[in-house]
Each structure stands twice: as structure tokens, then as C-alpha cells.
Amino acid sequence: MTDQPRDLDDNTCDLRKGEIARAWEQLVATARRTVADRLVVGTSGNVSVRVGDLVLVTPSGVPYDRLAPGDVTGVDLDGRQVLGTLTPTSELPMHLAVHRTTDARAVVHTHAVHATAVSTLLTELPPVHYMTGALGGPVRVAPYATYGTEELARNLLDALTGRTACLLQNHGTLTYGATLDQAYDRTAQLEWMCHLWLTAASVPGRTPNLLTEEQIREAGEKLSGYGRRDAR
What we know:
- With 232 residues, this protein is an alpha+beta fold.
- The chain has 6 helices and 8 strands.
- A hairpin with a 3-residue loop joins strand 7 (165-168) and strand 8.
């Protein structure tokens, strides 16, 4: 980290103040949404969004309802703090690993209950629903590593290969997207699918039907155009 992080009024900042302020506002709103939707408890979980070569992140140990416009916290892609005075999330290595190696513009990490439960039981979430295709295929579970470590960052990158979501063993979830809304929607969808799997798998004497690779691929192709006017 740098000794003197910059703030939004620093004239040396090469990004427009308004763009950073809007991105921070959206980040805080997303972080608060994870609490409201019970995907995290207290200050657990974290969110990041990329603006150029700057990564805005939720700070460590600060309740999201207390975050204000002046609390903007940002680092460069090497992890050096360049905006704000609050300490960035302890999960910074995980966020930076995703921003550096994928096309992510936003990352959401939660401790969602059903998803975390599944992470303790399986090495991959079975394809019980066609929305599996929207995440790139069956969601893998990254092996456990202590939170905030480079080991955890490496494990999740392996689990994310060809995917936009993964489970973190005995820990939680991580998803990414082109926008905060997309990353959040993928998080919510993953939690729902984990809840679905736990519900179906708990029926005595019955085994959930699973989709084939071809069915997942076809669904993924259709979902990639969902909402576009030219989609068929």
C-alpha cells in the first residue's frame, strides 16, 4: 500500500471523479443488498468493482449502512491503496486475482447459507437446473484455504476456469460479471440452485434428475442472448 492514499479531490487521479463516485455508490448499494437479502451477516462478504485500472472495494470491518460517499476505498491492480483511508477488505487477494485474470468488472463474495452448506458436502454442484448454463456449467467447489490468503485466491481461480461462479469450501460463494447487477444476480441464482439441490437431495429414496452436458450447453446459449431484442 502507498503511505498516502489519494482521495477524490486529488488532481493527479486519472479517472473522472464523477465516474468513481457513481461506481462507489453502486458498490455500496450492492453490499447493502447482500445484507438485506440475507446472503451475509454483519460485515462478512465483500464487493468490488473495476473502473479503468482502479478497483473499488468494500472496506474491512465497517457496517455497510454506515458507508458514505467520502468513504470510497480503492486499490490498483497490484493491491496498492490509492483512494481512501479505510482498510480494504481482507479478501483483497481474491478480488484482485479475479480482476487481473478474467474480464470481470465486478465481483461479489458472500457467505450465503445454502451455498456454504453445499460447499461442505460436494466438490461440484450437480446440474439440477438449466440456469447452470448461465454460470458456464456445473459450479465447482474451490478447496478450503484460510480467508484472505493467496492460496485461497489460487484455488478459486482454478475453480472458476470456464465459469463465472464458484463455491468456496466451508466458506461461501464468489461470482463475477460485467456489472455489479450481473455479478449480484449470479450470486442470488447460485444460492437458489444450492437451496434447490439440498431440498431435492433430502427426499428419502429419491435421486434428483440431472441435466446432461448438451442440455446445459443449449440453455447457456439461449441465456447468453436473454433480454436482447435480437434474441430468438
